[in-house]
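Researcher: Next entry in the queue.
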Amino acid sequence: MSDTGVYRFEVRVRTHFLSEQSDVEYGPYVFAYSIEIENQGDLPAQLMTRHWVITDATDTVQEIKGEGVVGEQPVIKPGEKFEYTSGCPLPTPVGTMKGTYTFVGPDGDSFDVEIPEFVLSMPRTLH
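Model: Structure for this entry, 127 residues:
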């Protein structure tokens, strides 16, 4: 959660292994993740960019930066939520993702909201 004065956003993540899109013996291993971003602050803000840090089981790190999410740059008003689903292929059956969203408020100031680290794991690979 980010708490920047009157800006307060909470990010929640759910993951799902996509066996039908994965090669479970050799990879890639494909995961879907659903993100819910809730504006718990006092002002609206527009999600402008994303920055992902993806780490696989061999500690190989891939960084992805881009505009918006799923082709959108949503304005999230106080009390509202924005949800989307995207995907991530990994060369290993386990990995992690974390990152930041950069928002711009009505005053033109930008600020970052942390995306907490979450695990991508093929079923029955972690104890």
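Model: The longest strand covers residues 45-56.
Researcher: Noted, moving on.
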